[in-house]
Write a structure and sequence with these properties.
The chain has about 90 residues and is of the alpha+beta class. It is built from 5 helices and 3 strands, in the order ββααβααα.
Length: about 90
C-alpha cells in the first residue's frame, strides 16, 4: 500500500496545508468538495501543488510532521522543485 504526503494551496504562494493519506485522490477530492471541516475549508485551500509517495505509514507520518515544522520558505522551495508553475496537479492524478 502507498501513503502520500501532500501540500495544498489556496492559490500560488497562498495559504498552505500539509497532509498525509493512504488515498490521495479521495482525500484531495474531499478537500476540494469542502467535505473536510476545518482549516482547508475555512481558508479555501483546494489546489494540490505537491505530493510524494511513501511505502510505510510511519515514514509518511514522520515526513508530514517534519514538513509541517518547516519554515514557509522551505515549503515553497519544495513545491517549486517539482511544480515551478504552481499548477493544480489534481487533474493529472485522476
Amino acid at each position: 500500500m502507498s501513503y502520500w504526503v501532500y501540500i495544498l494551496a489556496s492559490k500560488p504562494r497562498g495559504t498552505l496545508y500539509v497532509g498525509v493519506t493512504n488515498d490521495l485522490i479521495r482525500r484531495v477530492a474531499e478537500h476540494r468538495d469542502g467535505a473536510v471541516p476545518g482549516f482547508t475549508k475555512t481558508y479555501n485551500v483546494k489546489m494540490l501543488v505537491y505530493f510524494e509517495e511513501h511505502e510505510s505509514v510511519l515514514e509518511a507520518i514522520q515526513r508530514e510532521k517534519r514538513v509541517k515544522r518547516w519554515a514557509r520558505d522551505w515549503k515553497i522551495a519544495l513545491i517549486r522543485e517539482k511544480n515551478p508553475e504552481w499548477r493544480d496537479l489534481f487533474d493529472g492524478i485522476t
